[in-house]
Amino acid sequence: MLKWLGTALVLITVISIQACAPKSQEDCGFVQNVYGERISWKSDVPVTMYIHAQVPDSMIPAILKAADTWEKTAGRKLFNIVTSTRYTGPINPHKDSVNVIYLMSSWEDNRASEQGRTSVYWIGDQIKEADIRLNAADFGFYWNGQTLTRAAKADRQGSAPVNIEALVLHEMGHVLGLKHKDGAGSVMATYLASGDDRVNLAGADQTALQCEY
Ligand SMILES: [Zn+2]
């Protein structure tokens, strides 16, 4: 009897999954879930992002500018970057329902070439949280011709710095759900060279954004 019940339940589960299976979509530059649906915030409410207290004040205008660049293309507010207060929790990006931009003074040795990383958490096709890490261990940052920080690691302090606006622009693309796109001058290219002032969206980025925003 128990065995029969188990079989029946399994069958019901399978049927319900098939009945609800969503339709696969074109990726349009976005990360897709296991069903092939594009993931994004699916909301008109701007994404509230906090800035960790470790991020120097001098980086805030660059962060706001990067958000503004995406918003100009979308024609609406996408981000609510909180500047009235700072996030003061531990420098430990994790799933906590708070979107935070972290400046990391330590970074995995085997990923030292990575300038930044964005963790995106989603349920179904809807993003629930995104955290940005900026690698201040291996890289120094500049903006508008001014050096803002030098690499925390002594052996990397003399290396060429990275445009913080260009880096945040790329990571914010991930926050919105975009994946890497190499070529076409995209700001979502996998690599950002030191000294590259890539602060304008390419046509490909604008087209991609409009699929979801
Ligand atoms: Zn990336």
Automatic annotation (TrEMBL):
GO biological process, one term: proteolysis
Domain Peptidase M10 metallopeptidase stretches: 46-211
Keyword Lipid biosynthesis belongs to the record: no
Gene3D superfamilies: Collagenase (Catalytic Domain)
Any Pfam family hit: Peptidase_M10
Molecular function per GO: metalloendopeptidase activity; zinc ion binding
Keyword Magnesium: no
Entry's Gene Ontology cellular component terms: extracellular matrix
PROSITE patterns: PROKAR_LIPOPROTEIN
Secretion signal span: 1-19
Keyword annotations: Hydrolase, Metal-binding, Protease, Signal, Zinc
Protein name: Peptidase
